[in-house]
Each structure stands twice: as C-alpha cells, then as structure tokens.
Write a structure and sequence with these properties.
Blueprint lengths: L2 E5 L9 E7 L6 E2 L4 E6 L4 E5 L4 E5 L6 E3 L3 E6 L10 H5 L2 E5 L5 E5 L13 H10 L17 H29 L20 H16 L2 E9 L1 H18 L5 H15 L6 E3 L2 E3 L6 E3 L1 E3 L2 E3 L2 E2 L7 H17 L4 H4 L4 E5 L18 E5 L3 E7 L2 E15 L5 H16 L1 H5 L3
Parallel strand pairs: 14-18, 18-19
Antiparallel strand pairs: 1-8, 2-4, 2-7, 3-6, 4-5, 6-8, 9-10, 11-21, 12-13, 14-17, 15-16, 19-21, 20-21
Helix pairs in contact: 2-3, 6-7, 6-9
Length: about 425
C-alpha cells in the first residue's frame, strides 16, 4: 500500500494515553525509515516516535493532542520520492543544459556569460530574493565577476533580521521605561495566561490526590544528630573519591540505613493490593528528583545488596537522565520505599506525601546547627529533622516510630551501619 498509517504504539502496561508534545518533522517533508518524526509525553517519560517507512509525512494529530494507544498520528506516502539536492554548479548557474530551437538537447556551457555581469543573481539566489522581497541592487555580489550567490542573499536576510530585532528590543525597552510605575489613581497592568498542564504534571496531580484520598496517611517526626556522619565523610572523602571516582554523599548513607531497617521491618516495605498485603524480600528505594517538568521518583534497585559507591553512582546516573528527559519506562517503574530530600531547597520540616502503591516515604530536611543537650551539657550540633509519612492501614504507629528511631540510631553511629550491626 502506498499510504502507511502511523499509530500510537503500546508503550507499557499501565499507559493508556500519551500527549503529542512536539513534531520533529514538518508536515509534507520527506522522512527516512526509523527517523524520529515526533515526541510523545507519557505519564512517566518522553519518547521519540520513529517513522515505520520512508516517504512523505502527512500530519494527522496536532501538537498538544491527547492520544489513546492505537490512535492515528500521521500517514506516510511511500510512493513519494525524496527531493533532489541541487549541485553546486546548478546552484551557481555557471553551467546548464540548453534546449535548442530544433528540439535537440545538447550540453552548452554559457562560459560565465552571467558571471561577467555584476549584480546578476544565480538561480538559487534569485529564488531567495523573490521569496523575501529583496532587490538584487541591495546586495553586493561575491561570486565570480560580482555575481550574487545564495550565500550573499542569506547573509543579507540575516542582517535584516538582526536590525529588526535590535529595533524591536529598543521599542520594547522604551515602552517599559515609559510604564515603569502607574500614576496616582491609575491601575497597574494585570494580565492572565492560560496554559494546558503537561501530561507529567497532570499525572503527578492525579497521583497526589489519589494518595491523599485512598490512604490513611499519617506522619511521625524525629531528629538526627549528624555529627558522626559528617566526621566520617570528612575523614574518608578523599580516599573514597580516589578509589571509586565519586563523592560519598548523604543520600547513600540514608538509603543504606533505611534498607537495613526495611529488611528487618517488612511491613514498612510492603504494599496493599485489594485485601492482600504484598511483601518484598528486597529493597528498591525511589529517589525523588526535581526536573524542569516536575518531580520524578526512579528507584535504585536492591539497595540492601549495593555498596555505598554503587548507590552513589546509580543516583548520579538517574538524576542526570531525569533532568535530560532520558529516563526509560523501566527505570521509572517499581520502588518499595521512597526518600525525598527537601533540605536541598532549604526546607526545615515537611510532611511528604506517599508515593503509591508504597506504604511509606522518608523526608530529609536541611542540616542546621542547633544547641542540644549532650550528656548534661549544651553543645552545638548539626541537626536534621526527619519525617516518615506512612499508610496507617498497614503500618501501626509504634512500627513507624520504631522504624524512624532505628534509622536515627544507625546514622548517629554509622559504624553499626558499616559493620551491619
């Protein structure tokens, strides 16, 4: 069949709809097989959609459209041929075939008849002049004999755009200066803008509301003294970097402490599904990462079996992919527990919301030096508030408090963590 229909493919078991975020190829352009023609934004990631055949692309869906799996996106006319690229000689118009009056065609060289005429445009240059409303007399030719080339015209167009942009910027600045502040009795300018939510933002909103409405969520708090953790990092950081090529951060220490306690307290690491509880003999910790499009929580899998260096490398890799929009669906799936660190933004205390279907999430916060009582003496210590939000349907209050206390104890005495005590 000459017409090939391009439909939204099956992306994942839990994905029923995508948004066409942008076209990568223009309507009517020629595309090669497997060449990306558009991008889809799903609940979890942005994906490129490749052409299934070579031919002329015909858009059907529009940017911003929500499309169900199997919906028609575009058509490809496989009978269409790619446009031929003009040769340099043809573009410059120095040599061309001439049709003689007798009807016989022969190769005739114009011997630079046109090139000797100053200000005469080549065929390609003449076409650009017509399309942009320019006159040949406005342009200085740099070709042979003063002929106007395509590059001459493109340079003139670019110069005009720069002048227009500069003029527009000056006009905007002049208007802004004129309207710096409203005079007495004059209302300030008030504008509104309506913009469709991205699919990721809509998904985040839906899941947060679901977590709030479908779980019996509570939060318990504690504080941890990070004196020993900071001393450990300071003492061994250079050796750690020299051996593993990556810094020892707080996140790997917190993740390892949580994984150790989660293996001993399976309820905190479990899910509710209907009337059943699903337990896990492994710990996949989802790490909350802020991106320009919203918060994502890709999991670091089998944290209980990983070294500190392996955890740090995986977190760094996932964070880079998340911010560049390169996370795959597999990398976004799973997770039995979540850690979110609002402290990097300066948060002192918060109540993190559950990441369904998980039953608990740990919130880290900013480290602040505060006076605390130590063995009857007041000392200044680096303190952090910890928050554990949990689903009370499966985790009792005593279980949540015990979990948080055990994590606190491991972080305040990290030797226990290193010795697996």
């Amino acid at each position: 069949m000459p017409i090939r229909e391009m439909r939204v493919p099956t992306i994942g078991e839990s994905i029923n709809e995508v948004t066409l975020s942008q076209w990568l190829k223009e309507d009517g352009s020629y595309v090669e097989r497997d060449e990306p023609i558009c991008e889809f934004e799903s609940d979890k990631a942005t994906l490129e959609f490749p052409a299934e055949a070579a031919g002329k692309l015909i858009h059907v869906a529009k940017e911003g459209d929500d499309l169900e799996i199997g919906a028609l996106v575009a058509r490809i006319d496989t009978d269409a041929a790619p446009a031929e690229k003009p040769t340099v000689a043809a573009e410059e118009g120095e040599q061309k075939q001439v049709q003689l009056p007798s009807g016989k065609s022969e190769a005739a060289t114009e011997l630079q008849t046109s090139a000797k005429e100053v200000g005469v445009p080549s065929p390609a240059a003449a076409k650009l002049l017509r399309e942009n409303g320019l006159e040949a007399s406005q342009i200085q030719g740099t070709g042979k004999g003063g002929r106007i080339t395509k590059q001459d015209v493109l340079g003139a167009i670019a110069d005009e755009k720069r002048v227009a942009t500069t003029t527009a910027d000056k006009a905007v600045q002049a208007e802004a200066d004129r309207q710096e502040a409203p005079t007495f009795g004059e209302s300030p300018k008030r504008t509104e803008q309506r913009k469709k939510m991205s699919r990721m933002r809509r998904t985040i909103a839906r899941r947060l509301v679901s977590a709030k409405n479908q779980t019996a969520m509570l939060t318990t708090f504690n504080e941890v003294d990070l004196t020993e953790v900071m001393a450990l990092r300071k003492k061994y950081q250079e050796q750690f970097v020299e051996k593993y090529g990556i810094k020892l951060g707080f996140m790997s220490l917190f993740a390892k402490a949580c994984a150790k306690v989660l293996m001993d307290m399976p309820d905190v690491n479990a899910f509710i599904e209907g009337d059943e509880i699903i337990y896990h003999d492994y710990v996949d910790i989802s790490i909350a990462i802020s991106t320009p499009n919203g918060l994502v929580v890709p999991p670091v899998k089998n944290v209980e079996s990983l070294s500190f260096a392996e955890i740090e490398r995986k977190i760094k890799e996932l964070a880079a992919k998340a911010r560049e929009g390169r996370l795959s669906l597999e990398e976004m799936s799973g997770g039995t527990f979540t850690i979110t660190n609002g402290g990097v933004f300066g948060s002192l205390l918060s109540t993190p919301i559950l990441n369904e279907p998980q039953s608990a999430i740990l919130g880290m916060h900013a480290i602040k030096e505060r006076p605390v009582a130590v063995n009857g003496q007041v000392e200044i210590r680096p303190m952090m508030y910890l928050a554990l939000s949990y689903d009370h349907r499966i985790i009792d209050g005593s279980t949540s408090v015990t979990f948080l206390v055990r994590v606190k104890e491991l972080l305040e005495d990290p030797v226990k963590l290193l010795l697996d005590l």
